[in-house]
Amino acid sequence: MKKILLATTAATMLATGAFADGEKINIGVILGFTGPIESLTPDMALGAELAIDEINAAGTLLGGGAELVSVRADSTCIDSSAAQAAAEALVSNDNVAAIVGADCSGVTGAIANNVAVPNGVVMISPSATSPALSTIEDNDLFFRTSPSDARQGQVLSDVLMDLGVKSVAVTYTNNDYGKGLADAFQGSYEAAGGTVTISAAHEDGKGDYSAEVGALAAAGGEMLAVFGYADQGGAGIIQGALDTGAFDTFVMGDGMKSQALIDNIGPDLNGSIGTQPGSAGEGAKKLAELLTGIAGTPDGPFTAESYDAAALIAFAIQAGGSADRASIAANVLNVANAPGEPIGVGELAKGLEILANGGEIDYQGASDVELIGPGEAAGSYQEYVVEDGAFKVLRIR
Amino acid sequence: MTDLLNALALLSNFVIVPGLAYGSQLALGALGVTLIYSILRFSNFAHGDTMAFGAMLTILATWWFQSMGISAGPLPTALLALPIGIVGTVLFALATDRMVYRYYRKIKAANIVLMMASVGVMFVMNGIVRVVIGPGEQRFADGERFIIRAREFKEMTGLAEGISLRTTQAITVVVAVIVVALLFWFLQKSRTGKAMRAYADNEDLALLSGINPDKVVLVAWIIAATLATIAGTLYGLDKSFKPFTYFQLLLPIFAAAIVGGIGNPLGAVAGGFVIAFSEMGITYAYKRFIGYIGPDGWVPDGLVQLLSTDYKFAVSFMILVLVLLWRPTGIFRGKVL
Predict the structure, then answer these.
(1) DSSP state, B307?
(2) Rounded Cα gap, residues B204 and B215, in angstroms
(3) Do A200 and B18 lie within an 8 Å CB cutoff?
């Protein structure tokens, strides 16, 4: 008994000693810095790093002295083997405590199954939305601050029903994200009495989409639903449909919301509608203010979720009193949900303080975090319309 | 009658107009491949990336012109920049010939060796283009985008279906016609052109009659690089410029050259259009077309699509295999590979 006590004391002292020296805790930020959503990821990473800087500025992590260090890696969004190699490097070379990421659903599933779960590393994805990720064997290591697309499909269906649009053609990017969202949407929309005239996949990275547009036009519909990427096939399909006069207005999934899309296509896009996860509530506004001057698009897609993912990891470290991987995994849900003191954007120092004093917090953050089911965001969505060359948020659903 | 016109407009909008533009682009590419094959006797795999290289130079020149405020009015500035792109690509092709292919010609290497060397050249060009302009998409089309929009066409004619004609589609077809006419005139009438045909037919006989092989090879590269630049720029203008798509174009271009009869310029042009219209026609969904020409008020439930658009490239492959099986010399009796 005495020995154990001694050993524990010694270990605690050693550990505290290490903290006093300024322990550096690596946090992996794995996002697709190259690939189909490369225009979104820099701002997402900056969002996550803003939270990390805020934690470091507070200086009270693990009793003070511990510092979080962001280690970026490229998920490529589409190449699973490249993403796994990058994640493997994060886990074994950089010895990260936890990972913010990945971004696209396919690579996120690959990293979770083959790298994060076998190594016991917590992953919090800010943007992977495939419904299939709700059911992976994750040993409670995989979380997401973005909601499942099962919910987005429902919301998109509601938006169209409220507008009185009864038939649409659907095209989706041929991967886990596109297929998941298209299926979820079709299920909800048909249940609500709508008709999906065609649900056709498109490949990203092609020069010409006239054949795809021809098939969609033949099927017809009041609008064209595009569940793809703004930098890739999604933009090509919209351009082709407008050029041939096949469709005039579009319904867009979250991957399509990018200012570059409006800039490239121009006024013809006016009147098109879409949804994007996020509440645009107080938290999101405050984050956008903090990111002004740092990020290219301060209120861009998934920047809020990225900030929240990083913040959750920091709080889980603080709550468990250790940067140990298992301890982080055990504490994520505790800090994300009630009961506890609500913590918003810019209040991370307060949250650390409460946890250090043995209290409980209910992290709200920029996207009103509430993790349900297997650890994914419940999800509120912005309904937006393109007006005069800009996205205008109509309401929150 | 209105139904018939609507059906025609529908087909024109989605199959005929895009097919003509795409076919012209393939034809120009296939002409370059076929020319190199008949003079230098190897399949030049680097041709797709030569197109990307030429288009890249043209884009850089276009940006330069745009920054100086030079424009071609309603036409894309890229047309003015084209000569610069052509000169640069020709010089690049000649340098490649000097550094790579000339050695293999001198030691009389087998065709397969030259072909593999061209694969190496392809990867190098691929890399150069990505380093210079980046792997992303570049837009450089300016000027008037449409000659006629689908909506305007509908208002003008009162039909339910519109035809849209983009400026770039019209330019593509017009430029292709001019280039092909010039090339055929050159090959049939000019002294150098005749020498090239003689050299292609029988190398030894041509050498005996005093034709300078170095000059023939030089001219062949100049023409091939010119064609590649024009084809690459037109494709980039009409669709979008992305280095990777030019690599993908290699398959339909080779299919076009072989279907038409490799080594035969007329065949390359015909092959380009055969491939383009097969790709468009087989993957098009005829639901509404049949709705117009079929019995009154009847529309098929299905899409009436022979193959999903995902299989577009498979169409070129299928045609290639069928031609090689049934008529290895191609439509216009080219050489057997």
Answers:
(1) S
(2) 15
(3) no
Nearest to A206 among B245, B279, B284 (CB): B245
How many CB atoms are closer than 10 A to CB B281? 16
* CATH fold for the domain made of A150-276+381-396: Rossmann fold (3.40.50)
Distance from CA of B257 to the nearest CA of A (A): 21
Q: Is B285 helix (H, G, I), strand (E, B) or coil?
A: strand
Is A200 at the interface with chain B, CB within 8 A?
A: yes
- CB A124 within 8 Å of CB A153: no
Tell me which residue in A202, A208, A243 faces B164 most closely, judged by beta carbons.
A243
Do residues B172 and B24 touch, judged by C-beta distance below 8 A? yes
pLDDT digits (tens, 9 = 90+) for A135-154: 899 999 999 998 888 888 99
* C-alpha span between A5 and A207 (Å, rounded): 68
Are A212 and B309 an interchain contact pair (Cβ–Cβ within 8 Å)? yes
B110: DSSP letter: -
Dist CA B128 CA B132 (whole Å) = 6
- CA–CA dist A282, B259 (Å, integer): 64
Instruction: Establish if A198 touches chain B: CB-CB under 8 angstroms.
Output: yes
- SS3 labels along chain A: CHHHHHHHHHHHHHHHHHHHCCCEEEEEEEECCCCCCCCCHHHHHHHHHHHHHHHHHHCCHHHCCCEEEEEEEECCCCCHHHHHHHHHHHHHCCCCCEEEECCCHHHHHHHHHHHHHHHCCEEEECCCCCHHHHHCCCCCCEEEEEECHHHHHHHHHHHHHHHCCCEEEEEEECCHHHHHHHHHHHHHHHHCCCEEEEEEEECCCCCCCHHHHHHHHHHCCCEEEEECCCCCHHHHHHHHHHHCCCCCCEEECHHHCCHHHHHHHHHHHCCCEEEEECCCCHHHHHHHHHHECCECCCCCCCHHHHHHHHHHHHHHHHHHCCCCHHHHHHHHHHHHCCCCEEECCCCHHHHHHHHHCCCCEEECCCCCCCEECCCEECCCEEEEEEECCEEEEEEEC
| Exposed/middle/buried for residue B3 (C-beta within 10 Å: 0-12, 13-18, 19+) | middle
Pick from B22, B149, B310: CB nearest A203: B310
Contact A218 B164 (CB under 8 A): no
Q: Cβ contacts (< 8 Å) between B303 and chain A: which residues?
A: 198, 215, 218-219
Which residue, A261, A377, A212, is CA-closest to B307? A212
- How many alpha carbons fall within 13 Å on the CB side of residue B276? 26
CB B30 within 8 A of CB B268: yes
The CATH-assigned architecture of domain A2-149+282-377 is 3-Layer(aba) Sandwich (3.40)
Query: b vs e for A282-299, b when ≥16 Cβ sit within 10 Å of the residue's Cβ?
Result: ebbbbbbebbeeebebbb
For chain B, list the domains and their CATH numbers.
2-326 (1.10.3470)
Type of residue at B151: R
- Domain locations in chain A as residue ranges: 2-149+282-377, 150-276+381-396
Q: For residue range A296-336, what is the model confidence (pLDDT) as tens digits?
A: 888 888 899 999 999 999 999 999 999 999 999 999 999 99
Check B288 against A200: CB less than 8 A apart: no
The pLDDT value recorded for residue A3 is: 56
Query: For residue B88, what pLDDT is reported?
Result: 97
Look at A264 and B303 and tell me if their CB atoms are within 8 Å: no
Look up the ipTM and state it: 0.79
Q: For residue B148, what is the DSSP state?
A: E
Note whether A2-149+282-377 and A150-276+381-396 share their fold.
Answer: yes
Q: Rounded to two decimals, what is the model's pTM?
A: 0.75
B22 pLDDT above the threshold of 60? yes
